[in-house]
Amino acid sequence: xxxxxxxxxxxxxxxxxxxxxxxxxxxxxxxxxxxxxxxxxxxxxxxxxxxxxxxxxxxxxxxxxxxxxxxxxxxxxxxxxxxxxxxxxxxxxxxxxxxxxxxxxxxxxxxxxxxxxxxxxxxxxxxxxxxxxxxxxxxxxxxxxxxxxxxxxxxxxxxxxxxxxxxxxxxxxxxxxxxxxxxxxxxxxxxxxxxxxxxxxx
Length: 202
Hints:
By secondary structure, the protein is an alpha/beta fold. 51% of the residues lie in helices and 14% in strands. It has one domain (3-193): 3-Layer(aba) Sandwich (Rossmann fold), CATH 3.40.50.10490. It contains eight helices and seven strands; from the N terminus they run H-H-E-H-E-H-H-E-E-E-H-E-H-E-H.
């Protein structure tokens, strides 16, 4: 078997092991946010930051194209001057928490994307503590949290109201499957909110 074939086989095996109930619960929370006209905030570091931006784009554009009411999704990784100012003055650990203090309201949803779910560490210390601080803030202020994680799920697995854990111990596989999952959720949500569609079971 070639390396290409091997990688694709691994992707297929990972997809087959995904928790369908967790996926459905995450979709339901995002759908409920749309029904209530609540905001959805998205956060992530590194490759997960690009996934947060991409998913916010899909919610605001693809899912909302034919919707009775549009999604209101905001990626908190995108305002580079603000992120750099917060990092400079308050530290990297505060960049999402401080933005939520400006914008987050009771009933809003936070989508936190992290390969390790806030577990593990490297040269800079513990990973993704800025995400976990934001998750704590959202929960303490009447919000709901959707998590996307990998490996063993990390802290995010239990901290989120719904957490989809990619059962893989490879960062490329986890990040790649997170993109598949956000596209899956976007496709489902587009159908659920489109005009003229029958009400969803959610």
